[in-house]
Amino acid sequence: MTDKKITLSRRAFLGASSALAALPLINTPAARALGRKDPVDIRQHNPGNDWIRAFNDAFKDADVVEVPSGVVCENINTGIIIPPGKTLQIAGALKGNGRGRFALQDGCKIIGKNGSLNNICLDVRGSDCVIQGVTLSGYGPVAQIYIGGKNKRNMRNLLIDNITVTRANYGILRQGFHNQFDGVKITHSRFTHLQGDAIEWNVAINDKNILISDHVIDNINCTNGKINWGIGIGLAGSTYDNGYPEEQAVKNFVVANITGSNCRQLVHVENGKHFIIRNINARNITPEFSKKAGIDNATVAIYGCDNFIIDNVDMVNSAGMLIGYGVIKGKYLSIPQNFRLNDVTMDNTTLPYKLRGIQISSGNAQSFVAITNLNLKRASLEMHNKPQHLFMRNISVMQDADRGPALSMNFDLRKDVRGKFMAKEDTLLSLANIRAVNEKGVRSVDIDRVDQQVVNASGLNFRLPGK
Questions:
Q1: For a surface tag, which of 171, 211, 265, 398 has the fewest beta carbons within 10 Å of its beta carbon?
Q2: Cross-strand partners of 211
Q3: Which burial class, exposed, middle or buried, applies to 193 when counting CB atoms under 10 A from its CB (0-12, 13-18, 19+)?
Q4: How do strand 135-147 and strand 164-175 relate by DSSP bridges?
């Protein structure tokens, strides 16, 4: 997601989305046309087999326009603006060539009754919109649902629920630099066989109160050569800054109850604050997918974030977690701080090759990290750098001896460029009930030098050596 005005680390703006922002919309309450309250069959407005004209006429006539079961509306190849407050009910099918779209203004609803859209984009431009119950597909549009626009306005209350997106590029794409959304719920949906991300919430520095929950994500595999495509759920702020200013971060969101499989990366956040990721169930998150997309292989990837919680993540035969620096063109710009990682299980005992376990970089004075209740099998836990306070409790890690240590703690980075983020004095390292062993049950720990630090770790019984 890279706009010429904004520099990001790993994602790039999708140039094709700019065309979606070009069409001006009328969305003032005075512009709302009054129509019949009972549903109108779209066929009543289509004597000449011109479906685009039929929709425009039908929306002028009625508040609810219906595409009945068995009806196929073809050649939807241009933009159709749905007037404010109108509803489109789809029990049949709508088809286009990728250039068609329905633009939703204030109060618009698209309600599916086993209906489908193919190669048509739904373009959200207003408050109080609903998209529910439809199946969307087609590689024509960049995204099946686009949420953006260049109008500087505040919008609220978007509901996207119970949709299916399959055999397409992006599922839902938000470009949020120019405007604000307050109160978004994306729930109970299924995303399968996509080239791009299932849900991409990009440069959303003005948005708040975002809930993304209860989704099944399967087979996200970028094979078309696009860089940075192929993530399950991705959220990004603007430019990295180790001060973590609110106005540059994506913030105030929850990602919860996600079942993901067969992709390279499942959940991705960069430059985020005040968020929760919880109840993630992952299977087969491996480098076999999106091989040329240039993204890390991880079930959860966090870059340059502050003040967050990751809770209840279960991974089987999958890459684990990467919690690391914000990096732009090789420069380390910020480091994760003030977070908790809790209740994580990882079982790669039947995986034939080595994948990332859990790798954490954290630092800065006046920061804390709490890592509790981890159970990793045939995986490693790596800690890098040093926050002001580090708490580790109830950690069990088993890694095969030929794959390296089960637990690595690399605190002494003073001569490393990344060391500028580490807390250097008065740090508290508190470890208890830590078990890190190889497949034979032999202790498997690698710890570098740390100044004047003593750690009591039951099950390890080691002292960190002084300088």
A1: 211
A2: 185, 254
A3: middle
A4: parallel
**Token reading at 166:** 């399959």
Whole-number Cα distances in Å, 215 to 97, 270, 378? 28, 21, 28
Among 454, 452, 11, 405, CA closest to 203: 11
| Residue 250 clears pLDDT 80, i.e. is over it | yes
User: For tokens 């990467």, what's the residue?
Assistant: 322
In DSSP terms, which residues pair with 338 in a beta bridge? Answer: none
Question: Which residues are within 8 A (CB) of 58 and not within 5 positions of it... i.e. 6 or more apart?
Answer: 40, 42, 44, 45, 65
Query: Could you tell me which residues come within 8 angstroms of residue 131 by beta carbon, excluding any fewer than 6 positions away?
Result: 104, 109, 110, 122, 124, 145, 159, 160, 161, 163
Do 399 and 405 touch, CB atoms closer than 8 A? Answer: yes
Return d(Cα 287, Cα 292) in angstroms, integer.
Answer: 10
> Residue-wise over 370-384: b if at least 16 C-beta within 10 A, else e?
bbbbbbbbbbbbbbb
Q: Which residues contact 275 (CB under 8 A, 6 or more apart)?
A: 235, 250, 251, 252, 253, 254, 255, 269, 305, 308, 309
Give the position of tokens 């520099």. 7
Q: At 10, phi and psi to the nearest 5?
A: -125, -15
Q: How many CA atoms lie within 13 A of 202 on its CB side?
A: 30
Phi and psi (nearest 5°) for 159? -120, 120
CA 261 to chain centre: 15
Task: Tell me the pLDDT tens digit for each residue of 284-323.
Answer: 999 999 999 999 999 999 999 999 999 999 999 999 999 9
CA separation for the pair 333, 378 (Å, rounded): 32
Residue 81 to residue 96: CA distance in whole angstroms: 16
Distance CA 354, CA 348 (A): 9
* 30-86 pLDDT, tens digit each: 344 456 778 999 999 987 889 999 999 999 999 999 999 999 999 999 999 999 999
User: 328 with 9: CB under 8 angstroms?
Assistant: yes
What tokens were used for 258? 């996600």
* DSSP assignment letter at 106: T
Q: Which amino acid is at 30?
A: A
Helix, strand, coil share of the chain (percent; to 5): 10, 50, 40
Please provide the size of the chain in residues: 467
Return the ∠ at Cα 80 (arms to 73 and 211), rounded to 5°.
100
φ and ψ at residue 44, rounded to 5 degrees: -65, -15
Helices and strands of the chain, counted as H and E runs: 1, 32
Share of the chain above pLDDT 90, in %: 79
d(CA 370, CA 430): 10
How many CB atoms lie under 10 A from the CB of residue 430?
13
